[in-house]
User: Which sequence fits this backbone?
């Protein structure tokens, strides 16, 4: 939120790399704590034997998409806020550069909207950091304490 600074989380590969590295780390921790019993995470208790292969595949896909969803959620929310502020800032700047008192008075509205959206974007960034951290903690708890 510093002017003219670079926001790392507004790039898809950065957020995806962060989420996949955490995913790999959580998987390693799960195998270190539980050994091969960690794979029982993929098969819930009490499942009928004919459904087991289908359910293992479904749970494996679900487990792998956790990392993808973490990265996409963080990227999409950061990028949406940046795009909205950039568009409205360009609009406010265009109105400011026009000649005339009416345009200057009319520019105060978009300027205040940009300031409000900057505060909103800061709130979204804090909330996304919180959600990212909570989901990582939930995934780590699932890996350490199986079912």
Assistant:
């Amino acid at each position: 939120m510093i002017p003219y600074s670079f926001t790392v989380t507004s790039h898809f590969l950065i957020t995806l790399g962060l989420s996949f590295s955490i995913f790999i780390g959580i998987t390693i921790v799960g195998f270190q704590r539980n050994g091969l019993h960690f794979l029982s995470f993929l098969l819930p208790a009490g499942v009928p034997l004919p459904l087991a292969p289908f359910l293992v595949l479904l749970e494996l896909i679900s487990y792998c998409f956790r990392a993808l969803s973490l990265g996409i959620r963080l990227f999409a929310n950061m990028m949406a806020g940046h795009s909205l502020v950039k568009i409205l800032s360009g609009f406010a700047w265009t109105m400011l550069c026009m000649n005339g008192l009416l345009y200057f008075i009319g520019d105060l509205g978009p300027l205040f909207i940009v300031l409000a959206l900057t505060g909103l974007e800061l709130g979204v960034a804090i909330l996304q950091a919180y959600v990212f951290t909570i989901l990582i903690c939930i995934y780590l708890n699932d890996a350490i304490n199986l079912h």
Q: What stands out?
A: The chain has a mean pLDDT of 84.
